Amino acid sequence: MPREEGNPRPEKVAVVEEVRGRFDSSAAALLTEYRGLDVAAMAELRRALGAAGGDYKIYKNTLVRFAARDLGLELDDFLTGPTAIAFVEGDPVNVAKALRDFSRTNPALVIKGGLLGESVLDADGARALAEVEPREVLLARLAGAMAAPLQQFAGLLQALPRNLAYGLKALIDKGGASDAPAEAPAAAADEPADPDTSDTPASNDAAEALASGDTDQPAPTADDVHEAVEESTQE
């Protein structure tokens, strides 16, 4: 134990460097306990993880501690008992799912925790990672969510000319079915002529005004009366 507080032996330095490099370059790392798995089961697990984008490696806990401390990672709680690490080069969700699926038929495999980027995951967090949809599915859903409003907008644009044509047709049909506005009636042929356009002499106007008692008209003079008498004798 005191040796763990110091530096690893020279022959172990290369292994510590390797583990530190794997932690530093991997997208995630899931720590597991594999006690009870036989050689055949371990080979099957490695194949499943390799297909999911993971690399399953076994290191001594002491050397993993040194590498983790060099990187400032608190992984001591996970480094008890036989420990194997699934380093993730691809999608962490796929690797987590592969571990979960294998553990369903091989209960000896236990997920103890892990790293996602620089974040430390406990056992529950590492197992919850397996419930997340794969990156490809999430991207497809995001693309679909973004495309839906664009498709709706394109549909509206396509509908505008069609709706406009329907509206114009309805307006034309409505105008054709309605009755034409009635023409103004022609003036009657026997309508009396406007008094203003008649040929009545001014003297007759004066006489009529006098007879009707229209006080708005000027009073007739003696000449007007004389002219009226002469015209009546001539008729």
CATH superfamily (homologous) name of the largest domain:
Ribosomal protein L10, N-terminal RNA-binding domain
CATH topology of the largest domain: Alpha-Beta Plaits
Helix content: 55-70%
- Tell me the β content: 5-15%
Low-confidence regions: 182-203, 209-215
Spatial extent as radius of gyration: 54 Å
H/E topology pattern:
HHEHEHEHEEHHHH
The whole-number mean of residue pLDDT values reads 75
What is the CATH architecture assignment of the largest domain? 2-Layer Sandwich
The beta-strand count equals 5
**Count of helix runs:** 9
Count of individual domains: 2
Shape estimate? elongated
The strand line-up of the biggest sheet is 2-3-1-4-5
- Structural class by secondary-structure content: alpha+beta
Instruction: Please give the alpha-carbon distance between the first and last residues.
Output: 158 Å
**CATH class membership of the largest domain:** Alpha Beta
List the helices and strands and how they pair.
Elements: H1 2-5, H2 10-25, E1 28-33, H3 39-52, E2 54-58, H4 61-70, E3 83-88, H5 92-105, E4 110-116, E5 119-121, H6 123-129, H7 135-177, H8 202-212, H9 222-234
Antiparallel strand pairs: 1-3, 1-4, 2-3, 4-5
Helix pairs in contact: 2-4, 3-5, 8-9
Word description of this protein:
Helix 2 (10-25) crosses helix 4, helix 3 packs antiparallel against helix 5 (92-105) and helix 8 (202-212) packs across helix 9 (222-234). It is built from nine helices and five strands. 18% of the residues are buried. The chain has helices at 2-5, 10-25, 39-52, 61-70, 92-105, 123-129, 135-177, 202-212, 222-234, and strands at 28-33, 54-58, 83-88, 110-116, 119-121. Residues 182-203 and 209-215 have low confidence and may be disordered. Strands 2-3-1-4-5 form a five-stranded antiparallel beta sheet. It is of the alpha+beta class and 235 residues long. It folds into two domains: 2-137, Ribosomal protein L10, N-terminal RNA-binding domain (Alpha-Beta Plaits, 2-Layer Sandwich), CATH 3.30.70; 199-234, no CATH class.
